[in-house]
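User: I'm curious whether this sequence folds into something compact or stays loose and floppy. Could you predict its structure so I can see for myself?
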Amino acid sequence: MTPVQYSAANQVLVDAFERLPQNLQLAAYWSDDAVDPVRAEIKGHYIAVQKYICVYCGRSFVSRLQHREGATGHRNYQAKEIPGSITALSHRPSTL
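Assistant: Here's the prediction. I'll summarize afterward.
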């Protein structure tokens, strides 16, 4: 899969994280509002690379809203934070 090519502004934020000592490279860094543009760029890149196909359910979607709202029979994914900065996904039926 093609890696993200960050914009100059986002590359500064990624480089700042990578320059931190290993023990300070915490997942919480990416929760700061200041890195919202980096997360958006990553998400947008991989959505486009995957040709708008959900990697979890295999269905295509036109927009994030359409995917979250769910089509008939579609399933929603909920990210859950797990201690130790690991995120897991739970697949549950849509309530729509």
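Summary: Strands lie at 75-82, 86-93. The first strand starts at residue 75 and ends at 82.
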